[in-house]
Amino acid sequence: MSDVLVPTYSNLLTALSAWLGKAGEQLADPDTVLSARLAPDMFPLSTQVRFACVQAYEGVSRLRGEAFPPVWQELLEEGRSGAAHPGTLAETKSRIDTTLSFLAGLPSGALDDTGSRAIAHDLPTGMVFDMTGAEYARDWALPQFYFHLMSAYAILRHQGVQLGKADYLQHAFAYLRPGTIPGA
Predict the structure, then answer these.
(1) 161 CB contacts (<8 Å, ≥6 apart)?
(2) For residue 76, what are the domain limits?
(3) Does residue 182 lie within any of the structural domains?
(4) From CA 97, how far away is CA 102, in angstroms rounded?
(5) CB 3.0–4.6 Å: which of 56, 74, 127, 173 could bond 9 by disulfide?
């Protein structure tokens, strides 16, 4: 589980930070993009980024059976008020950096023995999902993370930030066989 979740969170949060960097370079007033949303009933970009970070903290903490760190609650509160207080691009990127530091500070194999852990995931609505750690990671933690990540990507693209698949999969270029880039 450590070899799947931690690199996934780290690689894609790094990509998200780079997307925000491109927004800063390409948009005339980049901080205004943080208030953008795809639909009136969706959270704005600022919240999508914060909630992507929330998912990384929540997934790791829940699987390890640990209390959520205080920054988790801060991100939730900031996210819920993201429309009224979107913050700045610099603050948003700082939240990602803090999350990446948290992930980098995890001991090697931090999640390896969590696949069979019983997870009772209760929602504020009163619904409770009973899963194993492996089911939670596969069917809840990663889909929730990807939802917020891809919402952020779509908002940025919709606002005119030039992003493509290479921006999304930038971490995969570490595996590129030399000499196989067409036209290079």
Answers:
(1) 19, 22, 23, 26, 27, 33
(2) 2-175
(3) no
(4) 9
(5) 56
b vs e for 69-94, b when ≥16 Cβ sit within 10 Å of the residue's Cβ?
Answer: eebbeebbebbeebeeebbebeebbe
Q: How many domains does the chain have?
A: 1
**pLDDT in 10s for each residue of the chain, 184 residues:** 899 999 999 999 999 999 999 999 999 999 999 999 999 999 999 999 999 999 999 999 999 999 999 998 889 888 888 888 899 999 999 999 999 999 999 999 999 999 999 999 998 899 999 999 999 999 999 999 999 999 999 999 999 999 999 999 999 999 999 999 888 7
3-state secondary structure 95-107: HHHHHHHHHHCCC
Angle at 105 between CA 109 and CA 101, to 5 degrees: 135
Structure tokens of 26? 């390409």
Can you give the pTM of this predicted structure?
0.94
Domain presence at residue 184? no
- Kindly state whether residue 133 falls inside one of the protein's structural domains: yes
Residue 181 is assigned to a structural domain of this protein: no
Q: What is the CATH number of the domain that holds 77?
A: 1.20.120.450
